[in-house]
Amino acid sequence: MQPAMPTLSASRRFIVLRACPGLLTGAALFSLTSCHTATTTNARGEEKGTFAASSAYTAIPAGIRAEIKAAKLRDSLPVRGRVRMIDQVLKVANLSFYPNSALEVEALGLDWIAIFAKVLNIDGPASIERTSRFNLDGEDGRDGRNAPQYIGETGRNGLNGQDGEQAGDGKSLDVPEVFLFAQDILIRGAAPGPTIPRSEFSLMFDGYPGGKGGTGGRGGNGSNGERGTPSRNGIWIDCSDGPGRGGDGGSAGRGGLGGRGGDGGDARNVYLFTTAGRAQSMNSIYRSQAGGVGGEAGETGANGSPGQPGPEGRLSSHCGTAGRGGRPAPALPPCAPGRVRGRPGVASDPLNPIVLGVEDFQDLT
User: Fold this and answer.
1) Full-model pTM
2) Is 331 exposed, middle or buried (0-12, 13-18, 19+ CB in 10 A)?
Protein backbone atom coordinates (compact mmCIF):
# COMPACT_ATOMS: atom_id res chain seq x y z
CA MET A 1 0.00 0.00 0.00
CA GLN A 2 1.49 3.33 -1.09
CA PRO A 3 1.65 6.21 1.40
CA ALA A 4 -0.83 9.03 0.88
CA MET A 5 0.40 11.96 -1.14
CA PRO A 6 1.20 14.98 1.08
CA THR A 7 -0.98 18.02 0.53
CA LEU A 8 -0.14 21.68 0.99
CA SER A 9 -3.16 22.95 2.89
CA ALA A 10 -4.38 26.52 3.15
CA SER A 11 -7.32 28.55 1.95
CA ARG A 12 -7.70 28.71 -1.81
CA ARG A 13 -8.29 32.15 -3.31
CA PHE A 14 -10.29 32.56 -6.49
CA ILE A 15 -9.48 35.81 -8.26
CA VAL A 16 -10.48 36.85 -11.75
CA LEU A 17 -8.04 39.22 -13.43
CA ARG A 18 -8.99 41.67 -16.11
CA ALA A 19 -6.69 41.86 -19.08
CA CYS A 20 -3.94 44.44 -18.66
CA PRO A 21 -2.56 46.09 -21.83
CA GLY A 22 1.10 45.23 -22.32
CA LEU A 23 1.15 42.69 -19.48
CA LEU A 24 4.36 40.68 -19.31
CA THR A 25 5.50 40.33 -22.89
CA GLY A 26 8.34 37.90 -22.32
CA ALA A 27 11.48 38.89 -24.15
CA ALA A 28 10.46 42.55 -24.36
CA LEU A 29 9.90 42.71 -20.62
CA PHE A 30 13.16 40.88 -19.97
CA SER A 31 15.08 43.80 -21.50
CA LEU A 32 13.47 46.54 -19.42
CA THR A 33 15.88 48.38 -17.14
CA SER A 34 14.05 51.54 -16.13
CA CYS A 35 12.89 51.91 -12.51
CA HIS A 36 9.85 53.23 -10.70
CA THR A 37 9.40 54.15 -7.08
CA ALA A 38 7.30 51.67 -5.12
CA THR A 39 6.11 51.72 -1.54
CA THR A 40 6.59 48.67 0.69
CA THR A 41 4.22 47.81 3.50
CA ASN A 42 4.40 45.45 6.47
CA ALA A 43 1.86 42.76 7.41
CA ARG A 44 -0.37 45.40 9.05
CA GLY A 45 -0.46 47.49 5.89
CA GLU A 46 1.84 50.19 7.36
CA GLU A 47 4.27 51.82 4.97
CA LYS A 48 7.90 50.77 5.49
CA GLY A 49 9.44 53.08 2.91
CA THR A 50 10.12 53.29 -0.80
CA PHE A 51 12.56 51.56 -3.15
CA ALA A 52 13.45 51.72 -6.83
CA ALA A 53 11.26 49.00 -8.30
CA SER A 54 12.11 47.72 -11.77
CA SER A 55 9.67 48.14 -14.66
CA ALA A 56 9.37 44.35 -14.81
CA TYR A 57 8.24 44.30 -11.19
CA THR A 58 5.64 47.02 -11.57
CA ALA A 59 4.34 45.32 -14.74
CA ILE A 60 3.21 42.37 -12.64
CA PRO A 61 -0.48 43.01 -11.90
CA ALA A 62 -0.88 44.68 -8.54
CA GLY A 63 -3.43 42.10 -7.41
CA ILE A 64 -0.96 39.27 -7.92
CA ARG A 65 1.81 41.12 -6.10
CA ALA A 66 -0.56 41.86 -3.23
CA GLU A 67 -1.57 38.18 -2.92
CA ILE A 68 2.05 37.04 -2.87
CA LYS A 69 3.02 39.65 -0.28
CA ALA A 70 0.06 38.70 1.91
CA ALA A 71 0.93 34.99 1.87
CA LYS A 72 2.89 33.62 4.82
CA LEU A 73 6.53 32.79 4.09
CA ARG A 74 7.34 29.22 5.08
CA ASP A 75 10.90 28.38 6.10
CA SER A 76 11.26 25.36 3.84
CA LEU A 77 9.39 22.81 1.81
CA PRO A 78 11.14 19.54 0.94
CA VAL A 79 9.54 17.95 -2.12
CA ARG A 80 9.91 14.17 -1.87
CA GLY A 81 7.98 11.96 -4.28
CA ARG A 82 4.85 13.82 -5.40
CA VAL A 83 3.60 16.76 -3.34
CA ARG A 84 0.24 18.31 -4.18
CA MET A 85 -0.16 22.09 -4.34
CA ILE A 86 -3.83 23.06 -3.90
CA ASP A 87 -3.34 26.75 -3.06
CA GLN A 88 -3.15 29.68 -5.40
CA VAL A 89 0.08 30.95 -3.81
CA LEU A 90 2.99 28.92 -2.47
CA LYS A 91 5.62 31.06 -0.73
CA VAL A 92 8.69 29.45 0.78
CA ALA A 93 12.23 30.52 1.64
CA ASN A 94 13.85 27.23 0.61
CA LEU A 95 12.06 25.04 -1.94
CA SER A 96 14.07 21.81 -2.24
CA PHE A 97 13.44 19.06 -4.76
CA TYR A 98 14.76 15.58 -4.01
CA PRO A 99 15.59 13.13 -6.82
CA ASN A 100 12.58 11.86 -8.80
CA SER A 101 10.19 14.33 -7.21
CA ALA A 102 7.43 16.60 -8.48
CA LEU A 103 5.36 19.49 -7.20
CA GLU A 104 1.91 18.75 -8.62
CA VAL A 105 -0.30 21.81 -9.11
CA GLU A 106 -3.96 20.99 -8.48
CA ALA A 107 -5.36 24.53 -8.40
CA LEU A 108 -6.65 24.25 -11.96
CA GLY A 109 -9.56 26.35 -13.08
CA LEU A 110 -8.00 29.45 -11.51
CA ASP A 111 -6.76 32.34 -13.60
CA TRP A 112 -3.23 32.15 -12.17
CA ILE A 113 -1.04 30.51 -9.55
CA ALA A 114 2.24 31.77 -8.06
CA ILE A 115 5.21 29.87 -6.64
CA PHE A 116 7.72 32.03 -4.79
CA ALA A 117 11.06 30.71 -3.55
CA LYS A 118 13.99 32.68 -2.25
CA VAL A 119 16.12 29.63 -3.03
CA LEU A 120 15.13 26.92 -5.50
CA ASN A 121 17.34 23.94 -4.70
CA ILE A 122 17.16 21.12 -7.26
CA ASP A 123 18.62 17.69 -6.66
CA GLY A 124 17.01 16.27 -9.81
CA PRO A 125 15.48 14.84 -11.75
CA ALA A 126 12.50 16.92 -10.64
CA SER A 127 9.59 18.88 -12.05
CA ILE A 128 6.76 21.29 -11.36
CA GLU A 129 3.70 20.17 -13.29
CA ARG A 130 -0.03 20.43 -13.54
CA THR A 131 -1.96 17.51 -12.17
CA SER A 132 -3.54 14.82 -14.33
CA ARG A 133 -5.86 13.44 -11.66
CA PHE A 134 -9.14 15.06 -12.78
CA ASN A 135 -11.58 12.82 -14.67
CA LEU A 136 -13.40 14.84 -17.32
CA ASP A 137 -15.13 11.97 -19.10
CA GLY A 138 -18.81 12.37 -19.87
CA GLU A 139 -21.37 10.21 -18.09
CA ASP A 140 -22.64 7.10 -19.85
CA GLY A 141 -26.24 7.11 -21.02
CA ARG A 142 -28.69 4.90 -19.15
CA ASP A 143 -29.84 1.70 -20.84
CA GLY A 144 -33.33 1.61 -22.29
CA ARG A 145 -35.88 -0.51 -20.43
CA ASN A 146 -36.77 -3.92 -21.77
CA ALA A 147 -40.36 -4.27 -22.92
CA PRO A 148 -42.59 -6.20 -20.47
CA GLN A 149 -43.51 -9.70 -21.57
CA TYR A 150 -47.15 -10.75 -21.88
CA ILE A 151 -48.01 -14.22 -20.55
CA GLY A 152 -50.99 -15.80 -22.29
CA GLU A 153 -52.32 -17.15 -25.55
CA THR A 154 -54.10 -14.20 -27.07
CA GLY A 155 -51.83 -13.60 -30.09
CA ARG A 156 -50.92 -10.07 -28.94
CA ASN A 157 -47.87 -8.49 -30.52
CA GLY A 158 -44.74 -7.97 -28.45
CA LEU A 159 -43.95 -4.48 -27.14
CA ASN A 160 -41.03 -2.35 -28.29
CA GLY A 161 -37.92 -1.88 -26.20
CA GLN A 162 -37.05 1.63 -25.00
CA ASP A 163 -34.25 3.52 -26.74
CA GLY A 164 -30.99 3.96 -24.82
CA GLU A 165 -30.24 7.39 -23.35
CA GLN A 166 -27.83 9.76 -25.06
CA ALA A 167 -24.52 9.99 -23.22
CA GLY A 168 -23.04 13.09 -21.64
CA ASP A 169 -20.35 15.14 -23.38
CA GLY A 170 -16.75 15.14 -22.23
CA LYS A 171 -15.76 18.19 -20.18
CA SER A 172 -12.93 20.71 -20.45
CA LEU A 173 -10.69 22.33 -17.84
CA ASP A 174 -8.47 25.39 -18.07
CA VAL A 175 -4.99 25.51 -16.62
CA PRO A 176 -3.84 28.70 -14.88
CA GLU A 177 -1.07 31.07 -15.85
CA VAL A 178 2.01 30.28 -13.80
CA PHE A 179 4.20 32.87 -12.04
CA LEU A 180 7.40 31.23 -10.79
CA PHE A 181 9.73 33.40 -8.72
CA ALA A 182 13.23 32.09 -7.84
CA GLN A 183 15.67 34.61 -6.41
CA ASP A 184 18.43 32.01 -6.47
CA ILE A 185 18.76 28.58 -8.08
CA LEU A 186 21.06 25.81 -6.93
CA ILE A 187 21.66 22.48 -8.68
CA ARG A 188 22.67 19.80 -6.19
CA GLY A 189 23.65 22.54 -3.77
CA ALA A 190 25.89 24.47 -6.17
CA ALA A 191 25.45 27.39 -8.54
CA PRO A 192 24.15 26.20 -11.91
CA GLY A 193 26.05 26.41 -15.16
CA PRO A 194 24.72 28.28 -18.18
CA THR A 195 22.26 25.47 -18.90
CA ILE A 196 20.03 23.30 -16.72
CA PRO A 197 19.45 19.95 -18.47
CA ARG A 198 15.95 18.63 -18.89
CA SER A 199 17.09 15.58 -16.94
CA GLU A 200 17.55 17.85 -13.90
CA PHE A 201 14.44 20.02 -13.90
CA SER A 202 11.39 20.73 -16.07
CA LEU A 203 8.12 22.67 -16.03
CA MET A 204 5.19 20.69 -17.46
CA PHE A 205 2.09 22.80 -18.05
CA ASP A 206 0.38 21.43 -21.14
CA GLY A 207 -3.28 22.23 -21.61
CA TYR A 208 -5.56 19.70 -19.94
CA PRO A 209 -6.86 17.02 -22.32
CA GLY A 210 -10.59 17.02 -23.00
CA GLY A 211 -12.69 14.29 -21.48
CA LYS A 212 -13.97 11.38 -23.51
CA GLY A 213 -17.64 11.43 -24.39
CA GLY A 214 -19.76 8.96 -22.50
CA THR A 215 -21.05 5.75 -24.05
CA GLY A 216 -24.69 5.79 -25.13
CA GLY A 217 -27.11 3.55 -23.28
CA ARG A 218 -27.99 0.16 -24.73
CA GLY A 219 -31.40 -0.11 -26.30
CA GLY A 220 -34.00 -2.19 -24.47
CA ASN A 221 -35.09 -5.59 -25.74
CA GLY A 222 -38.41 -6.00 -27.49
CA SER A 223 -40.76 -8.57 -25.96
CA ASN A 224 -41.87 -11.70 -27.70
CA GLY A 225 -45.22 -12.00 -29.44
CA GLU A 226 -47.79 -14.10 -27.60
CA ARG A 227 -48.87 -17.55 -28.72
CA GLY A 228 -51.97 -17.49 -30.85
CA THR A 229 -55.34 -18.46 -29.44
CA PRO A 230 -55.92 -22.21 -29.32
CA SER A 231 -58.32 -23.97 -31.65
CA ARG A 232 -61.68 -25.24 -30.32
CA ASN A 233 -63.54 -28.46 -31.02
CA GLY A 234 -67.09 -28.30 -32.17
CA ILE A 235 -70.03 -30.10 -30.48
CA TRP A 236 -69.68 -33.03 -32.82
CA ILE A 237 -66.56 -34.45 -34.28
CA ASP A 238 -65.63 -31.19 -35.97
CA CYS A 239 -63.53 -28.08 -35.43
CA SER A 240 -65.27 -24.91 -34.27
CA ASP A 241 -62.32 -22.45 -34.41
CA GLY A 242 -58.90 -22.95 -35.93
CA PRO A 243 -55.71 -21.99 -34.09
CA GLY A 244 -54.96 -18.26 -33.92
CA ARG A 245 -52.01 -16.46 -35.45
CA GLY A 246 -49.04 -15.79 -33.19
CA GLY A 247 -48.21 -12.21 -32.25
CA ASP A 248 -45.37 -10.30 -33.92
CA GLY A 249 -42.13 -9.74 -32.01
CA GLY A 250 -41.57 -6.31 -30.49
CA SER A 251 -38.92 -4.03 -31.98
CA ALA A 252 -35.62 -3.51 -30.23
CA GLY A 253 -34.75 -0.15 -28.72
CA ARG A 254 -32.03 1.85 -30.45
CA GLY A 255 -28.72 2.47 -28.73
CA GLY A 256 -28.20 5.96 -27.33
CA LEU A 257 -25.85 8.37 -29.10
CA GLY A 258 -22.35 8.67 -27.66
CA GLY A 259 -21.29 11.95 -26.07
CA ARG A 260 -19.15 14.56 -27.78
CA GLY A 261 -15.50 14.67 -26.77
CA GLY A 262 -14.50 17.61 -24.57
CA ASP A 263 -12.30 20.33 -26.03
CA GLY A 264 -8.66 20.22 -25.06
CA GLY A 265 -7.61 23.10 -22.80
CA ASP A 266 -5.31 25.83 -24.05
CA ALA A 267 -1.83 26.08 -22.61
CA ARG A 268 -1.18 29.30 -20.70
CA ASN A 269 1.89 31.45 -20.18
CA VAL A 270 4.56 30.41 -17.71
CA TYR A 271 6.44 33.46 -16.40
CA LEU A 272 9.86 32.92 -14.83
CA PHE A 273 11.27 35.62 -12.54
CA THR A 274 14.84 35.59 -11.25
CA THR A 275 17.85 37.81 -10.71
CA ALA A 276 20.29 38.83 -13.43
CA GLY A 277 22.91 36.28 -12.40
CA ARG A 278 20.52 33.35 -12.87
CA ALA A 279 18.60 34.47 -15.97
CA GLN A 280 20.67 32.50 -18.47
CA SER A 281 20.42 29.29 -16.47
CA MET A 282 16.69 29.72 -15.92
CA ASN A 283 16.12 30.33 -19.62
CA SER A 284 17.39 26.81 -20.34
CA ILE A 285 14.79 25.10 -18.13
CA TYR A 286 12.68 22.74 -20.23
CA ARG A 287 9.06 23.84 -20.46
CA SER A 288 6.22 21.90 -22.05
CA GLN A 289 3.24 24.08 -22.96
CA ALA A 290 1.40 22.11 -25.65
CA GLY A 291 -2.32 22.42 -26.18
CA GLY A 292 -4.50 19.78 -24.58
CA VAL A 293 -5.63 16.90 -26.76
CA GLY A 294 -9.31 16.91 -27.69
CA GLY A 295 -11.41 14.21 -26.04
CA GLU A 296 -12.57 11.22 -28.04
CA ALA A 297 -16.20 10.88 -29.06
CA GLY A 298 -18.14 8.38 -26.99
CA GLU A 299 -19.36 5.15 -28.51
CA THR A 300 -22.99 4.79 -29.45
CA GLY A 301 -24.83 2.25 -27.33
CA ALA A 302 -25.71 -1.17 -28.77
CA ASN A 303 -29.19 -1.80 -30.09
CA GLY A 304 -31.42 -4.05 -28.02
CA SER A 305 -32.53 -7.50 -29.12
CA PRO A 306 -35.81 -7.74 -31.06
CA GLY A 307 -38.65 -9.82 -29.69
CA GLN A 308 -39.32 -13.26 -31.12
CA PRO A 309 -42.56 -13.98 -32.99
CA GLY A 310 -45.27 -15.82 -31.09
CA PRO A 311 -46.05 -19.38 -32.23
CA GLU A 312 -49.36 -20.45 -33.69
CA GLY A 313 -52.19 -21.42 -31.37
CA ARG A 314 -52.37 -24.90 -29.95
CA LEU A 315 -54.36 -27.51 -31.89
CA SER A 316 -57.29 -29.25 -30.33
CA SER A 317 -58.05 -32.90 -31.13
CA HIS A 318 -60.62 -32.20 -33.85
CA CYS A 319 -58.71 -29.37 -35.55
CA GLY A 320 -56.04 -30.32 -37.99
CA THR A 321 -55.53 -27.09 -39.89
CA ALA A 322 -52.53 -25.24 -38.50
CA GLY A 323 -52.55 -21.53 -37.85
CA ARG A 324 -49.42 -19.53 -38.47
CA GLY A 325 -46.82 -17.91 -36.29
CA GLY A 326 -46.22 -14.20 -35.87
CA ARG A 327 -43.63 -12.17 -37.76
CA PRO A 328 -40.22 -11.30 -36.36
CA ALA A 329 -39.49 -7.67 -35.58
CA PRO A 330 -37.63 -5.85 -38.38
CA ALA A 331 -33.89 -5.57 -37.90
CA LEU A 332 -32.55 -2.14 -36.89
CA PRO A 333 -29.84 -0.49 -39.00
CA PRO A 334 -26.32 -0.41 -37.58
CA CYS A 335 -25.74 2.08 -34.80
CA ALA A 336 -24.71 5.56 -35.84
CA PRO A 337 -21.17 6.52 -34.87
CA GLY A 338 -20.53 8.64 -31.79
CA ARG A 339 -20.55 12.40 -31.96
CA VAL A 340 -17.51 14.48 -32.83
CA ARG A 341 -14.15 14.55 -31.10
CA GLY A 342 -13.30 17.66 -29.07
CA ARG A 343 -11.04 20.28 -30.62
CA PRO A 344 -7.41 20.41 -29.52
CA GLY A 345 -6.19 23.22 -27.29
CA VAL A 346 -3.77 25.94 -28.36
CA ALA A 347 -0.09 25.75 -27.44
CA SER A 348 1.77 28.56 -25.68
CA ASP A 349 5.34 29.52 -26.51
CA PRO A 350 7.93 29.56 -23.70
CA LEU A 351 8.84 33.10 -22.65
CA ASN A 352 12.26 34.40 -21.70
CA PRO A 353 13.00 34.80 -17.99
CA ILE A 354 12.14 38.17 -16.50
CA VAL A 355 14.84 39.81 -14.42
CA LEU A 356 13.91 41.38 -11.09
CA GLY A 357 16.11 43.22 -8.66
CA VAL A 358 16.93 41.91 -5.20
CA GLU A 359 14.78 44.65 -3.69
CA ASP A 360 11.87 43.47 -5.85
CA PHE A 361 12.17 40.01 -4.29
CA GLN A 362 12.50 41.51 -0.84
CA ASP A 363 9.29 43.46 -1.36
CA LEU A 364 7.41 40.27 -2.15
CA THR A 365 8.82 38.60 0.94
Assistant:
1) 0.75
2) exposed
